[in-house]
Amino acid sequence: MFINHNHVAPVNNAWGIRRGDPMFSTVERFVEILDRVGVERAVVFPLYDHHIMTPSDCRELNDWLSNKLKDYDHLVPFMTLDPKHSDAVPLAKEFAAKGFKGVKYHPPVFETPINDPKNERFYSACEALGLTILIHTGAHVSTPWPLRFYNPLLIDEVAMNHPGLKIIIEHLGGFDFIHEAVAVVKNNPKCFAGLTSFSGIPAGMLNHVFTTKCAGAFLNGSRPLLKDKLIFGTDFPNREPQTEEMFEHELCLSKELNLSQADLDNIFGGTLQRLLEEE
């Protein structure tokens, strides 16, 4: 299994201190869980604490991860960056050269609209470098911000302007915008559905979206996209508890949709592996 979308941080990070847990979100705890669950590989990126950090701190965060992962070959590094920041393009180039495979971009946390013109240089650089961008979608209640700035439909515009840019639409719009996110995935060959923190979406809605409304696109129609469009992630450490139970809650997706083993193999690593291997 190769899982996507995991936040990691140093020991005694600010989030852990606030929770009275110095190991909260650490690489060490994450690796322990992976070992117990039997996950072979995982995408990780630095946990950005918007309460105390600014985009200027991203270099230090990414430097920390680069050094930390020298002892963890099975963890695949992604950067944390604000696309509109003046250092975003230089940092993308620098860390891509160090082996980073992509970028996590959280619009409401950075208060950077998905279609902000200042992002264009960054999108072009990632496209040229072959980097994959994970874009948060879905209402982020802990950082209230106008939804119009990160509606998944805005990703359609980005994908059309940058047809070679690999994008994973994280949380697939959440409960709020799942249909818009699915439309963008259907409309763009390089856009993928990030099934992250999906256990909070009612099973009935999942079945409606994946087995009824979009059956012709995702499951068994003339353009079967399921086998190479859905990518599983956990959102560690944001799904509690930080134990094997976290994975069980998220893995319920597979049980609800009655998918074939071949489809599950793609969702739980196959598609992500192929995506990151693309030049």
Task: Describe the structure in brief.
The protein is 44% helix and 16% strand. It has helices at 14-19, 27-37, 58-68, 88-97, 107-110, 120-129, 153-161, 174-187, 203-213, 215-219, 244-257, 261-277; strands at residues 2-8, 41-46, 75-80, 102-105, 132-136, 166-170, 191-196, 230-236.
Write the topology of this structure.
Blueprint: E1 2-8, H1 14-19, H2 27-37, E2 41-46, H3 58-68, E3 75-80, H4 88-97, E4 102-105, H5 107-110, H6 120-129, E5 132-136, H7 153-161, E6 166-170, H8 174-187, E7 191-196, H9 203-213, H10 215-219, E8 230-236, H11 244-257, H12 261-277
Parallel strand pairs: 1-2, 1-8, 2-3, 3-4, 4-5, 5-6, 6-7, 7-8
Helix pairs in contact: 4-6
